Amino acid sequence: MIAFSKLTIIVIANYLRVSINFSARCNTQTATTFLRHSTSPLTASTILEPRMRHLSPSKYIKTAKYALRDYVAGDYRYPFYCSFKIIQRCDSSCEFCNVWLKPAPDMPTSKILKIIDNVADSSVLVLSLEGGEPLMRKDIGEILQYIRTKPLYVLFTSSGKLFEKRPMKDYCRYIDFLHPSIDEGHDNLDLYESLPEFVSWGSIVCVQIVVMKEYLPDLEQKIRKCYNAGAKALVMPACLLPGTPDFLPEVTAFRNEVMRLKRKYPRTITTTDKYLRALTWLHGCTSASIIIDYDGRLFYPCRTLMGKTIDLSEQSLMGFLDSKEADQCRERMRKCEINCHWYQYFATDSYVSLGNTVSSLTPYLTDFF
Ligand code: SF4
């Protein structure tokens, strides 16, 4: 059953925390005016806001209205989570990933900011910056600074290999959720020792761990390090992508181990129970989230099917979602039998689902309230 209880809880919780500074924080600055007026470097002295922003009340209400419309229609037309692949270059070459195999030139900054405007004006509440490696973009500070002017929570995924070469403490003032990917595939396990430092930067830190089948027995030591450092962990199996070998762990063994660790290390693992259950369902994905590719085009209904649609620097996201073409894409998703286990498509609805509210929200209780 489609519901929006969790989103509603977050909306109400944040609404109650609203301060009179809201309107000053969330203005309607456009990409054009930002580019014209913003030339200052990213420094701590230019930043006045706390890391967990309270977005404008109108944004929460808008997103809740779309969630209600989806609930009534029994659909996932309006996403509240968006991944934006802002770069197709990477400093890693993970065997389970295919991004680094096809590097491409970076999108101009102006195009990225236009797309951010488009997303900010939609039902989306959380914008995830991904790649490739986002820290390889020279304008990443400018992009983060720009999103700060928008009613969006920012999630930032990185291999962490460039952390010591970038002003991460300053960047984290603009990042709500910092997701370093630390696992065997990224070949950066030494970064677990630096987790306490990452946590000290102020963002909510959640280590993304992609589990390849041979490394399932090593998962607990990683979770323990997250737990001891006060970080969270998002545990995902290595999905089978076009052009990559099969590293997918045996799904029942994976689920049992993650469930065991969730009980042993409370409020640490954010992988949702619904996702773990869906690993053995015939169908479990939804369009509650979307992915934008490095060229600005929207994957729809999903990235696995490689269906690329509109250029979001030119066309309205909300206009597309209401179109007949988008309806057909969602129908294609409903009928898909691939069961690719892509975390984003199989888990995001947990955050608006009545039956999964408590388990999905628990790791974040102390951060939201
Ligand atoms: S199961 Fe099919 S529709 Fe769903 S995310 Fe995977 S490939 Fe896409």
Question: What structural keywords apply?
Answer:
single chain; 369 residues; TIM Barrel; nine-stranded mixed β-sheet; disordered N terminus; binds iron/sulfur cluster
Query: Roughly what is the average pLDDT, rounded to an integer?
Result: 85
* Sheet/helix structural class: alpha/beta
Tally the beta strands.
9
Counted by DSSP, the helix tally is 16
Q: How is the topology of this model organized?
A:
Blueprint: H1 5-16, H2 22-25, H3 31-37, H4 57-73, E1 81-85, H5 109-120, E2 126-130, H6 140-147, E3 153-158, H7 168-171, E4 177-180, H8 195-200, E5 204-211, H9 219-229, E6 232-237, H10 251-264, H11 273-278, E7 289-292, E8 297-299, E9 308-311, H12 317-321, H13 324-335, H14 343-347, H15 357-361, H16 365-368
Parallel strand pairs: 1-2, 1-7, 2-3, 3-4, 4-5, 5-6
Antiparallel strand pairs: 7-8, 8-9
Helix pairs in contact: 1-4
Bound molecules: iron/sulfur cluster.
Iron/sulfur cluster is lined by residues 285, 301-302, 304-305, 333, 336, 338-340, 342, 345.
